[in-house]
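Request:
You are asked to prepare a plain-text protein record giving the amino acid sequence and the backbone structure tokens, at your earliest convenience.
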Amino acid sequence: MSSLAGVLIADFSRVLAGPYATMLLADLGAEVVKVERPGTGDDTRAWGPPHAGGEATYYLGVNRNKRSIALDLADPSDVDVARDLATRADVVVENFRPGTMERLGLGYTSMKERNPRLVYCSITGFGSGAGAGLPGYDLLVQAVGGLMSVTGEPDGPGTKTGVAVVDVITGLHAAVGVLAALRHRDQTGEGQRVEVSLLSSLLSALVNQASGYVSAGVVPGRMGNRHPSIAPYEVFETRDRPIAVAVGNDRQFRSLCAALGRGDLAADPRFATNTSRVAARGALAASLSETLSSRTADDWFAVLMAAGVPCGPVNDLAAAFKLAESVGLDPVVDIADPRREAPVPQVANPIRLDAAPPGYRLAPPRLDEDGAWVREMLKP
């Protein structure tokens, strides 16, 4: 039996943070009904290329195991259906601007009166207080939330990450909050409101950088691929392509020096401890670069990993998936769908559970594909 079997989620979210959270919960067995705008549906249905089978792969990536119903929330009759769905649901997830659901009669207070056991998760950009009116876009939050200030080369501009990581982190926080609220409901019979914001999620996810600021007043800057507190912990050029070397302690550093044939570095007092290596990172990096440039990345990967030194070549996605397959992680699953000509490939849920593993029941739905099913399910 799936962990969340019997849990019904009314998903009013769109784009990434909310849909990612509800997909994770759906993988764990929850029944998720995705409420979409008639005609266009979730914005990500139009976010392409790339496409697969005529559908945007962005949308396909975060919407499996769900059922779609198209409801016009400007139409009173469709709002009635949405209200019935939220009343029946165990969980509501929404990421409209604060106040929108209240204007529709679907806000937490009104829904709690109809369903005291409801877990109601709101995802915002900047909270429901003074920042309620600010637009919650991942790029914007990466900029104003400090992530871009620590991402990129020291002499270059701030750079966003290669994926909307703030949305993903916020979705994870939302899923954890929902699970905690469901556990609380199991114990007390009471639902509650769960609130997560992109800005708060990012500040939490900045971990050591944020801690350095709040605890010591240190405002970090961009360091490229270097680490502010560990050395050597960066990317080096080899004969053919870059390799990442992640030395986390003095023992690993000595192993690195031995594997490289650089006993002189291990004996150098400037590099005796991590703190001293951080202080002399420039000289250390120059010496390591000289040696690492003499062989290929694959050569060094084999030598250093055999010596117990964490390292790896800088892969593209094709090589990354190949690596995951080679170590037995089974990173891709195919979901059969009788309504499509071929199975839909998906990135596997990363959670492994022995007793109740994630499942892959439904391919991402086409718009309003399950509208009739949902309406039938809501009948008294």
